[in-house]
Structure prediction request, 269 residues.
Amino acid sequence: NGETSPTVSMAELEHLAQNISKSHVETCQYLREELQQLSWQAFLQDEVDGYQSKPREVMWQLCAIKITEAIQYVVEFAKRIDGFMELCQNDQIVLLKAGSLEVVFVRMCRAFDTQNNTVYFDGKYAGPDVFKALGCDDLITSVFDFAKSMCSLHLSEDEIALFSAFVLLSADRTWLQEKLQVEKLQQKTQLALQHVLQKNQREDGILSKLRCKVSALRSLCARHSENLSAFRAVYPDIVRSHFPPLYKELFG
Amino acid sequence: LKEKHKILHQLLQNSTS
Prediction:
């Protein structure tokens, strides 16, 4: 929409794209090269058995810890995006509460091995069977399917960076106080993403494919919340006493 | 919201390393 789109110069877009790519690289938990080198290290069957025989609450706690670690890197990513820290504190919290797990799912495609359908977890590459003890097979299948479909887009690091920022700066989150400011920032990020896609000579349909991923991410996060609620209904004390405080703040 | 998200708020306040 030409009327509401901000006027942004090419130099400004280039600068924003560079800022977001740099922020992404600086705040990635693992380098892509590291992950690729580790991709042959899959869990052995007895290790898989070990995860499967863990009590449900112990596996939930382990995953909550891993998710929380990954989210802390996403918070750092957000802080380094030009304009994010200029938003009001309420909106910074709203965006991270709603979007940090979505960015973790986007980043997961970097740590995903499509050939073996495994993801880097707890020191090695793990297939869906490793997460059996959680008791939420449907969610795990959806997460793996999502990672697989993200990988099929073959996004470069700068494309992942820009898409992550676009997801994080979603202006349609509930409880935003300065929606217009977030909208402006998201529009600029979208223009920077389009700029990078063009520069990388990506096919025309890539942006609409990425838009579909936005709704897939929302559905994944909604399912994570549903599964957490179901788990908490059975193990309220485990969540209260053993889950990371940041995880509880975000998803409680 | 800030009150209910003290850790997140703290992380946002910490200077970037």
About this structure: The mean pLDDT of chain A is 96. The radius of gyration of chain A is 19 Å. The beta strands of chain A are 112-113, 118-121, 124-126. Residues 211 and 220 of chain A are 15 Å apart (CA to CA).
